[in-house]
Design brief:
Length: 153
Amino acid sequence: MDEIIFRSATIDDLPALVTMLADDTLGSARESADDLSVYRAAFAEIESDPRQELLVAERRGAVIGTAQLTMLPGLAHKGAVRAQIESVRVDRPLRGHGLGSQLIEECVRRARERGCTLVQLTSHGSRAEAHRFYGKLGFEASHVGFKLSLADN
């Protein structure tokens, strides 16, 4: 595989990012590249927050993967800062070739660089393959997560 570059996302990456977010069973029900205005507003907020990193993996000028890394300061664990990894996606044709592992490793590297003592992530209960993937990378299914939707559906 050609060299992969990990970098911060730019607004020009937005169409590719939204396309990847929508390219699975769950994402296709909640994401749409038809109107990027809501994503532009979210991107601007993420970009302006120093505790957020929206990463892209790029090869030969094309965005082929993404993840969002959020630093969460807290009192627990003696005031530790945790890193939360969300919205991990790899371009469909490249899945299963190691890019996801490289992307997570890059997130962990950046979290360490920022002084985080723990990296955590969530994965939808239906994503059994993703759960195996994260387990192989050393993540433990140590907690049960709960969500409460506040959106008008």
